Amino acid sequence: MTISTYESVYINAFGTPSLVLDHGQGVHVWDTEGKKYLDLLAGIAVNALGYADQAMARAITDQVSKLSHVSNFFTTEPQINLAKKLVELLVSEGGRPGKVFLANSGTEANEGAMKLAMLHKPGGKIVALEGAFHGRTLGALSITHKPAIREPFGQIPGCEFIVPEVEALAGLGDDVAAIFLEPIQGERGVMPLSEEFLQEARATADRIGALLVVDEIQTGMGRTGRWFAHTASVQADVITLAKGLGGGMPIGAIIATGEAANLFTPGSHGSTFGGNPVAAAAALAVLDRITELLPHVGDMGEWIMGELNAAGFEVRGRGLLLGVTVNDAPGLVTELRKAGFIVNATGPDTLRLAPPLIISRDEFAPFVQALSELRK
Ligand SMILES: Cc1ncc(COP(=O)(O)O)c(C=O)c1O
Fold it and tell me: Does CATH number 1.10.1740.10 belong to domain 2-52+294-374?
């Protein structure tokens, strides 16, 4: 009944949803029929603190009861504090100091980063990687690789793709304004870029005078056991964030460093809701908790890899963003859901795991057993 109502009133952009979810607690969610699931997807790498985190709930309700929105004619303490915090986190991992613009989603953060590239080198090309996913609005979609989702809508002139291999970078010249990359290509199936490629992308951007834009929307804010997945390898000029930053509240961010921090001037960019104090207050509460969780995320990621390897599975990724190679991933997603586990398939042979960062060994262990029993 409820799903058939969805089908009659909701635009069919996602196919028919498999569940109507009602509430959550910690790493579990319940559907409207009362069935409980272990959530190993966390709203696709969003619900960093799982469900019903009390500190986050308090931050949101306190802020709503004080001030829920102001226009961009004014600012608020959560907006300022969040921008300051993001820059501090970047610098704490060896990144360059910068400035922040707050948006409402990942795709919007990437739109802003593309506009920075256009101001950095007017008329320059924007180069992204095969397998990239940067979002669904028309700019970000132009650098999202999958033809089936991009081609019906055309492409902004000057956007191009290269294969994520070092040799391909050698072909880039000074007509390129920016190179966009994800340190781990999540939607491609959790494919980490090689250390060598990251280093060479930085060297290439320097050689041709392009911005290196690192999309940390899926990988950032603790997901890989660090604040940023790229900082262990390279420094970026521009970084985009969303997903886990708000722990479930809609928020995105651009961190622009060096000269890129001053490319926007009044009138260049804007957003009614970007920098919203409720979303910013939630993000501050989430970041506080992630500070305590970072070592746990690294340890859990290694433990999970060890357990799945011992059960005979090939696993890639870092921290709590993992891709598991299986036969018939879509079929397994359905079987696992029946067994009470939420995961997703990024392709025919990859299951993506991106659980809440709070997950414990005891909570995860039943999944290893279920996966071993259900594998084909
Ligand atoms: C790496 C990456 N960039 C951008 C996006 C787009 O973010 P949003 O859906 O918030 O617009 C996503 C979403 O999956 C993503 O994984």
Answer: no
Cβ 111 under 6 angstroms from ligand 1: no
Ligand 1 nearest atom to the CA of residue 187, by list position: 16
**From the alpha carbon of 216, which atom of ligand 1 is closest?**
1
- Per residue of the chain (376 residues), give pLDDT as tens: 589 999 999 999 999 999 999 999 999 999 999 999 999 999 999 999 999 999 999 999 999 999 999 999 999 999 999 999 999 999 999 999 999 999 999 999 999 999 999 999 999 999 999 999 999 999 999 999 999 999 999 999 999 999 999 999 999 999 999 999 999 999 999 999 999 999 999 999 999 999 999 999 999 999 999 999 999 999 999 999 999 999 999 999 999 999 999 999 999 999 999 999 999 999 999 999 999 999 999 999 999 999 999 999 999 999 999 999 999 999 999 999 999 999 999 999 999 999 999 999 999 999 999 999 998 6
In 3-state terms, what secondary structure has residue 328?
Answer: coil
Q: What residue ranges do the domains of the chain occupy?
A: 2-52+294-374, 56-288
If you measure from the C-alpha of residue 312 to the centroid of ligand 1, how many angstroms do you get, rounded to a whole number? Answer: 31
CATH class of 56-288: alpha beta
Secondary structure (DSSP) of 117-163: HHHHSTT-EEEEETT----SSHHHHHT---HHHHGGG---TTEEEE-
Please compute Rg for the chain using Cα positions: 20
